[in-house]
Structures are given as structure tokens and as C-alpha cells.
Amino acid sequence: MADRREDLRAADVDRQFVAERLKAALDEGRLSLGEYDDRLKDAYEARTYGDLDKILKDLPGFHPQAESQLARSSSPAASSDGEERDESRNPRWLIGVWSAWLVAVSVNIVIWILVSISNGEPVYFWPMWVAGPWGAVLLATTFSMKVLGNEPPRQQKRYRDS
User: What is the pTM of this model?
Assistant: First the structure.
């Protein structure tokens, strides 16, 4: 097993991240077209994170993990892309999961109401079995993230430049 990050094998998503960063550097005028072509070729041939680090090393905004002087974990307001995170806003994923819960529960309640009306009398309130357990899990997740300060879930791992 590789002991250092530089020796770990890079994935396709890591190579794609470097390719996008190189494209941005070309668009900013930081790389000539020839340099861009050479580095892009090197990025897709890279095997390890160390190889990828060498490609981006002289571009602004990139600091290999070994040379980083700032521990990200000590600053809760810093996000993974280096920008300040607005703590007053709810993350998109949190709004998304609560919106999905609200839609599902609303549909179930509307169906329950329609069934109750067609029977002429109220029937067993079965939507509670959708709303209750799912809502409890979402409450625990929200509490964990907002109050305890745990990290939100990640959709995919990306090549981290710091």
C-alpha cells in the first residue's frame, strides 16, 4: 500500500479535474496553446497524484498537499474549493432531501384524503409510515450537520489540490 499521497494511483475523475484546470489556465492566458497541449497529454498519461501535482504546480491557486501550510480541518468556514462558505445558508443537498420528503408526504396525504372521501369516512392514516421514519432520519442528519458540525455527504471524490 502506498504510504504517501503522491504515490497513490490517480483515477479518471482526477485526470479530468486537472484537464479542466488546464483549460481554465489556457482561457486565462496563463498557458500557451503548446504548453496546454503538452500538459494535457501529461495529465492523461499520469498514473499518480504526484504526477498530476507536477502538472499544476506553477499555476496560481494550486498548492500540493505536502506543501500546504494551512490545515483545512482547522477552519470550518473554508470549503473544499478554498472559498468562504456562507454558514447562514442551507446546503443544496439539505434543501433537496427535505423537498423530496415534503413532496412524497404530500402525495401520500392527498391519496389518503381522496380514499377517505370516496369511502365516506376516514380510513387508517397510513401516510404516517412514510412521513415518520423518513422524517426522523432527515432530522437526525440535519441535526448532525447543523448542530454538531459534521461534513455533508459528497457525491463524488474529486482531485483535491490542497
Answer: 0.41
The C-alpha cell that represents 38 in the structure block: 503538452
**Those residues with Cβ within 8 angstroms of residue 33's Cβ, 6 or more apart along the chain or in another chain:** 26
Q: Which residues neighbour 66 within 8 Å (Cβ) at sequence distance 6 or greater?
A: 4, 5, 6
List, in order, residues 6 or more apart from 125 with CB less than 8 Å away.
112
| Among 12-21, 72-81, 144-153, the range of highest mean pLDDT | 12-21
The Cα 19–Cα 14 span in angstroms is 9
